[in-house]
Design a protein that fits this description.
The complex is a heterodimer of chains A (301) and B (414).
Chain A: H1 8-26, E1 30-33, H2 38-51, E2 60-64, H3 70-83, E3 87-91, H4 92-97, H5 114-125, E4 130-132, E5 149-152, E6 180-183, H6 191-201, E7 212-219, E8 222-225, E9 239-244, E10 257-258, H7 264-273, H8 291-298
Parallel strand pairs in A: 1-2, 1-4, 2-3, 4-6
Antiparallel strand pairs in A: 5-6, 7-8, 7-9, 9-10
Helix pairs in contact in A: 1-2, 6-7
Chain B: E1 2-10, H1 16-26, H2 32-44, H3 60-65, E2 72-77, E3 81-89, H4 95-103, E4 107-113, H5 120-131, E5 136-142, H6 151-165, E6 172-177, H7 201-207, E7 220-222, E8 225-227, E9 239-243, E10 248-249, E11 254-258, E12 263-271, E13 274-275, E14 279-280, E15 284-289, E16 300-303, E17 309-320, E18 331-336, E19 339-352, E20 359-360, E21 371-384, E22 395-400, E23 406-413
Parallel strand pairs in B: 1-3, 1-4, 4-5, 5-6
Antiparallel strand pairs in B: 2-3, 7-16, 8-9, 9-15, 10-14, 11-12, 11-16, 12-13, 12-15, 17-21, 17-23, 18-19, 18-22, 19-20, 19-21, 22-23
Classes of the chains: A alpha/beta (301), B alpha+beta (414).
């Protein structure tokens, strides 16, 4: 192998840093959408690299459903503290209290879709013109059509059939007042790339990703964690399981898998051997073939 | 492990989805729950077979119409390489999507039906690959199972393609006889074609030499932004942040900033992990200089041994991407590397027939999906290279002033 060559992770890292720098150069009020999940943690790590030795020149936005894993919240606060960045919290509970959003009812009720209201309100209130997210194209088929720079109209909506072509490494961030962009620097990364990168860089992630004992109930092929929000259905029972999470979202919709992987090395090994997608444990994606596209059009992450 | 980006183009019946499906499936990049969902959707539609295109034709309108409209990016990896496929539709009305997919690719996969031989679509894909300067083409002669795996049928197509390949500017062209449906020569060597001495498609993708595809000669560093930490320990720090577009930079190198012409020398090349002794494309770094000179976004740092061109008059091959053609006298935002200027289309030399590469003079207005050689005039000088020399510094887009849409993509010609 000759001397001037990058590994695939170095090339993906360089591409992501380039995209993040473009955002800061092209927009007035960018922000990073931070969920506390591994993808947004990696994006935040890349942003730190992009501007070193300066601090990350934009705030983190967390959309708080009120149904969080306590571990995620603790992790978020520590990270914000360490990086010295501003944290903006958009609260779904507050949107419900104000009557901006209405709590879902029924057996599959969750606050997943309500996040859209809080997210768009937060973006509007803080006049954010570019929101950087950790979505990846390999995650879901609607996301595979996303651009790096993805335009949102004044209602925060995505028009997948009418997207701007994106060529070479030239990104068009021009927009009218009131419109904004979602930007996805790790578009080209796969779940495997994320884990290998976390291992390579030794990036801190919430303990929830590592195998631990937890009370959970088996529902729709996944282990849903017991919490004050979980309502047991007929025939269901809570069990104590050695498990971990492959993705992190709202505690009410994020299922875990049985696993003994308690180190990053073991996680990488487990992910490379696994035969099902990470979002297979997310009930929000199971509603229909195009549920992600439908939510994204309205302004979802 | 290296990264290889390749593009495919094709329509419903040439076996492109089957081929990609097989590459993904055989490299274990399709997961069980994805497969189960596709199987279920196929059954619901009353299909006899599993429709692998449902894996990625994810948009509601694509699933309804059963066609790929947009560029879909797909990912798979083997222990040797990671691959990004830009999967594009093949019909002429989607030329702009093919151009988009080709713009970042190192390699183009051209599919030919062994029964039909080289057809218009084959030529179109190859021309686009050539215009976008994709360094490698693999011609997959597919459906060999339908011509009894005949060496003669294969040779006939190779000969046809060779005849026409004289017109295109790609030096590395390889031919592989495959059956995407049966799996011959896709991942594993075919037992049905002992006469074929080459390697399977996947093996070729894994081993083709791509290390020389980047330009490591002409040093180019477009400045994205200036890093100025407001902290006591980095009080005077000014780092010029960017991604190297060509050549090799080292501390101590004498540099010139364009278009201003100011000169200095590199003091350090920094990354989060520490300073580096040399930097090359496509690394993202930040550079500090010995002298405090005026540099901002849109400037380009170069080394004196190879100068790019600086001009306000630029000849370009444009691919028009918007539904409405250019308005007479319209001004556009032109983006080239990190620089943005205003531009007008001063002259249209000719349009290009993308099926034959014929020049069409006096062919009327430029319309969507058409290619035309034009002269642009800009308000400020651009700093650029010929596209064939550098795909980053030699490419540009035009953005409509009133709609903010990206209306055209251009490759700079001399």
């Amino acid at each position: 192998m000759h001397k001037y060559y990058l590994t695939h992770l170095q090339e993906l890292e360089s591409e992501a840093i380039y995209v993040i720098r473009e955002v800061v150069a092209q927009f007035d009020r960018p922000a990073i959408l931070f969920s506390g999940g591994k993808d947004s943690i990696v994006v935040t790590h890349l942003a730190q690299k992009a501007f070193w030795p300066a601090k990350i020149p934009m705030p983190l936005i967390h959309i708080d459903t009120g149904h969080n894993f306590p571990e995620t919240m603790e992790f978020r606060d520590k990270l914000v503290d360490r990086l010295g960045v501003q944290l903006i919290v958009g609260s779904v509970q507050e949107a419900i209290d104000k009557g901006r959003a209405v709590e879902e009812s029924g057996i599959n009720a969750s606050r997943n879709e309500l996040q859209i209201v809080s997210l768009l309100d937060t973006i509007e209130h803080h006049k954010i013109d570019a929101a950087i997210g950790g979505a990846r194209r390999d995650e879901e088929k609607a996301r595979s059509k996303e651009r790096f720079f993805s335009h949102r109209d004044e209602f925060g909506q995505w028009d997948p059939k009418n997207q701007r072509p994106e060529l070479w490494n030239i990104f068009n961030g021009r927009k009218r007042m009131g419109e904004h962009f979602r930007v996805f620097p790790i578009s080209n990364w796969t779940e495997m790339d994320i884990w290998n990168y976390i291992l390579q860089e030794n990036i801190a992630i919430p303990s929830l990703y590592f195998a631990h004992n937890r009370e959970a109930v088996y529902r729709d092929g996944t282990w849903l964690p017991a919490s004050e929000f979980l309502v047991l259905r007929d025939g269901e029972k809570i069990e104590n399981k050695l498990m971990r999470f492959r993705t992190l979202g709202d505690i009410t919709i994020t299922g875990g898998i049985e696993s003994e992987a308690d180190t990053l090395e073991k996680i990488v090994e487990e992910v490379s051997a696994t035969r099902s997608t990470e979002r297979g444990n997310r009930s929000d994606d199971k509603r229909s073939d195009t549920s992600m596209e439908d939510r994204k059009k309205q302004g979802y992450f | 492990m290296e990264l290889l980006r390749f593009t495919t183009a094709g329509s419903v019946d040439d076996g492109k989805s089957t081929l990609i499906g097989r590459l993904l499936y055989d490299s274990k990049s399709i997961f069980e729950d994805q497969m189960a969902a596709v199987k279920q959707s196929s059954e619901r539609k009353g299909l006899q077979h599993i429709d692998l295109s449902l894996l990625t034709d994810g948009l509601r309108s694509e699933r309804e119409q059963g066609i790929t409209i947009d560029v879909a990016y797909r990912y798979f990896a083997t222990p040797k390489r990671k691959f990004i496929i830009a999967d594009t539709p093949g019909h002429i009305q989607y030329t702009r999507n093919m151009v988009t997919g080709a713009s970042t690719a190192n390699l183009a996969l051209v599919l030919v039906d062994a029964r039909k031989g080289v057809v218009e679509q084959t030529c179109r894909h190859s021309y686009i690959a050539s215009l976008l300067k994709i360094p490698h083409i693999i011609v997959c002669i597919n459906k060999m199972d339908l011509v009894d795996y005949s060496e003669e049928a294969f040779n006939k197509v190779v000969e046809q393609y060779n005849d026409f390949a004289g017109k295109i500017d790609v030096t590395d062209i390889r031919y592989i006889p495959i059956s995407a449906l049966e799996g011959d020569n896709v991942v594993n060597d075919s037992e049905n074609m002992p006469w074929y001495k080459g390697t399977s498609l996947l093996h070729t993708l894994e081993t083709i030499h791509i290390g020389s595809d980047e330009n490591h000669v002409d040093a180019r560093f477009p400045v994205q932004t200036v890093i100025r930490p407001h902290a006591a320990e980095y009080h005077d720090y000014r780092g010029y942040a960017g991604r190297i577009a060509g050549g090799i930079f080292k501390p101590g190198d004498k540099i010139t900033v364009l278009p201003s012409g100011l000169t200095s020398a590199i003091k350090s090349i920094n990354t989060f992990s520490g300073p580096v002794e040399e930097a090359f494309a496509p690394m993202s770094v930040s550079i500090t200089l010995e002298d405090d000179i005026d540099i901002s976004r849109g400037d380009m740092i170069i080394k004196d041994d190879s100068e790019p061109l600086v001009s306000q008059d630029i000849d370009v091959m444009l691919c028009w991407m918007a539904s409405k053609g250019p308005r007479p006298g319209a001004k556009y935002h032109l983006k080239n590397t990190t620089r943005e200027v205003m531009a007008i289309i001063k002259e249209v030399y000719y349009k290009l027939d993308i099926n034959t590469l014929e020049k069409l003079e006096d062919a009327g207005d430029i319309k969507m999906n058409e290619m035309a050689r034009v002269r642009l005039r800009t308000t400020q000088p651009l700093v650029f290279d010929e596209y064939r020399k550098n795909r980053i510094t030699g490419s540009l887009i035009l953005v409509d002033e009133s709609t903010n849409e990206t209306v055209a993509a251009g490759t700079i010609l001399l």
